[in-house]
Write a structure and sequence with these properties.
The chain is α/β, with parallel strands linked by helices and 250 residues long. It has eight helices and eight strands.
Length: 250
C-alpha cells in the first residue's frame, strides 16, 4: 500500500510484511468479498488503517486462480490442477500464479531487511458455519501458543468468527497447501493461516438461529481481519497506543 510518508517504505528501512492471498479455488466466491473488505479498509481514511499503513507493508494477491474463475471452474485451474496442492514445487508453466507468488515470498524471506510476519490464505467452506482458521502444529510449544493469538484477537473483533471451530493440524492431505508449506519454510516469527468463511451462514454467540451471509457481511469480516492487526501489534509493542479504543468495524 503506497504511502510516501510511511517510515516502513523509505529506502533501506526494515519492513514488516503481511502477505494475503485469496481465490485459489475459483468456486469459493466468498473469499473474494472477504479480501475486498480487507483491501477497502486498508486504503481507507480510517485512523486504524492509517496506523497499519505506517507500520506494516501489505502484499495482497486477490485471485490466485484467474483462469479457473474465468472458466467457471469450482476447484481447478485451466489445466485441471488444484493449485492449493502444488505449493511445494509449482511449475512456472502449469501453475504460473502460484510459482510467481511463491518466488516473491521466498525473495522476501531471504531479504534481511524484510520480516514476513503473516501469511493468510482466504477460502470458503461448504459445510461449516462462521469464519474460522486453520493453523499449523509445531513441536515448539511457545510457537504453537503464539500462533493462537491472532485468531483469538479476531474472535473478539468479529462476531461471526468462531475460535471454537479454529483448529491446528498437520494433515498429510494438506501438505501442499500454502499454509502448510509456508509454515514449514518460514521462521518461527512468521504465522501462516488458512482463513475459512462459510458459504451460507453464521451463528452468533448464544443465538440459535443461523444468520445468512451477505456480500456486506463477508466484507465486514475482511475489515475486522484488517483491524485485528492493530490489536496484535499493540499487544507486541510495535504500535504504541496513538488511538483511543474504537468500536468494531461496521
Amino acid at each position: 500500500l503506497p504511502l510516501s510518508a510511511a517510515a516502513n517504505l523509505r529506502p533501506g528501512a526494515e519492513q514488516k510484511v503481511v502477505f494475503i492471498t485469496a481465490r485459489v479455488h475459483p468456486g469459493e466466491t466468498p473469499s473474494s468479498f472477504v479480501c475486498q473488505g480487507i483491501i477497502d479498509f486498508l486504503v481507507s481514511h480510517h485512523p486504524i488503517a492509517k496506523v497499519l499503513r505506517d507500520h506494516l507493508v501489505f502484499k495482497i494477491a486477490p485471485m490466485l486462480n484467474p483462469d479457473g474463475v474465468y472458466l467457471g471452474n469450482y476447484r481447478c485451474s485451466l489445466l485441471g490442477f488444484d493449485l492449493n496442492r502444488h505449493w511445494a514445487n509449482p511449475s512456472p508453466w502449469a501453475h504460473p500464479t502460484l510459482h510467481g507468488v511463491k518466488e516473491l515470498i521466498i525473495d522476501m524471506y531471504n531479504n534481511p531487511k524484510i520480516n514476513l510476519e503473516f501469511y493468510i490464505d482466504i477460502h470458503a467452506h461448504s459445510t461449516m458455519m462462521n469464519g474460522f482458521m486453520y493453523g499449523n502444529i509445531f513441536e515448539d510449544e511457545e510457537r504453537f501458543q503464539r500462533q493462537a493469538v491472532f485468531p483469538k484477537l479476531l474472535c473478539q473483533n468479529a462476531e461471526d468468527f468462531s475460535y471454537s471451530s479454529t483448529s491446528f493440524n498437520r494433515d498429510a492431505v494438506k501438505a501442499g497447501t500454502g499454509r502448510r508449506f509456508l509454515g514449514g519454510l518460514l521462521n518461527d516469527t512468521s504465522y501462516c493461516y488458512t482463513l475459512e468463511v462459510s458459504f451460507y451462514s453464521y451463528i452468533l454467540a448464544g443465538a440459535a438461529p443461523a444468520v445468512p451471509y451477505t456480500e456486506e457481511a463477508y466484507m465486514k469480516l475482511g475489515r475486522n481481519v484488517a483491524r485485528t492487526f492493530l490489536d496484535y501489534y499493540r499487544l507486541n509493542s510495535l504500535v504504541e497506543g496513538p488511538l483511543a479504543p474504537t468500536p468494531k468495524t461496521r
